Amino acid sequence: MWVSVLLFVQLQRQARAEDALSYKFESYQEARDRIKVIAHYARAEKQLSDGTTLSIQGVVDTITGATPSGEPAPEGSDQVPLSTVKTEVRRGLVLNAGHAFGQHELSGQLSYSGESDYTSRAFSFTDLVNFNQKNTVLQIGYARSNDVVHPVFFADELLKKSDDFIVGVTQILDPRTTVTVDLGWGRSRGYLSDPYKIIEKDTELFPGLFLPLTFPENRPDQRSKATLYVSCTHFFDKANGSAEASFRYFDDNWGIQSGTLELAWFQKLGERFVLSPSVRIYQQSAADFYMLSLNGTSIEPGTVATGAAPFYSSDYRLAKFRAVTLGIKLVAKVSDHLSLDASYEDYDMRGRDGFTPQSAFCRADVVNLGAHWNF
């Protein structure tokens, strides 16, 4: 996905080739006073010379609320216990330099983000190679991230490293139709568990005396993943609008397979407005080691996550579920230099395994407001 973002930025540069400033506000609010995220993004882009661009982007987001702890719902109830999330502020910075020469458009990124319990440093490179009078674009990319997990209750800092590769082709079929196909592969190593998720097991403290004790989850310390992404955009003259359809398939060695289908329509309204309704359907299978509790298993959990077998997690995000997102976006070109946008999305997540309580899953409202100024 990160390379898709880079490609989008590169293609936008081809179209603009000018200095620009942009700002975006995002609000994500789950129902029942669960997780709330408020984010602010700012970006500045400068054309240093023909074919050379430098940009800097900053982000500040705040997370509050509550989230399922991983404990099962009490007997006679379908409400899973929630853990209050300490108010957390994350700050991030991304530097990007791009240069175009001949058939190539090279781009490199350096990024940093930090919060009280997690620090991430990453870099990436991408090359867009233009063929066939720029009707065909080959994209090749690589990214590496080095993260440090350090909650206050950890004795030592734990490391996580990830590598991602992507290769893809964007082809203009005719003046109205464009098709993109991307293949991606990635691998993560190190501490991959969630330090705040726990799992329950009835444990015998004395002969005949069992108590429901909780233990930290334990995920594998490595994860490999592969993705296939296909999209098509077509402009309809009579409707003065365009349709975009995309599908993304994901597969990993944790046992998760998922598919994401997204459909969007971009309707021009006069010379200054574009209205875009959209729908996104996501569906995944459960991780091999997902379970509600350790009761009925022979697993003897430890007091720390080791990353070695046996593996277990009751994190609802690893369950079998479907999520549907309905969205609407309006872009207004206020002047030749200023454009504004606003969007709303309704996100609805539903379990599909028949045993995870629906209360574990979430429904959320997502609001975005943005402004872009070029000069």
Strand order of the largest sheet: 1-2-3-4-5-6-7-8-9-12-13-14-15-16-17-18
First-last Cα distance: 29 Å
Shape: globular
What is the percentage of strand-forming residues?
Answer: over 45%
Structural class: mainly beta
The low-confidence runs, each spanning 5 or more residues with pLDDT under 50, are 1-17
Tally the helices: what do you get?
Answer: 1
What is the count of β-strands?
A: 18
Overall pLDDT, averaged? Answer: 94
Structural summary, described in words:
4% of the residues lie in helices and 64% in strands. The model is unreliable at 1-17 (pLDDT under 50). The chain has a 16-stranded antiparallel barrel. A two-stranded antiparallel sheet has the order 10-11. With 375 residues, it is mainly beta. It starts with a helix and ends with a strand. Strand 7 (136-149) and strand 8 (158-174) form a beta hairpin.
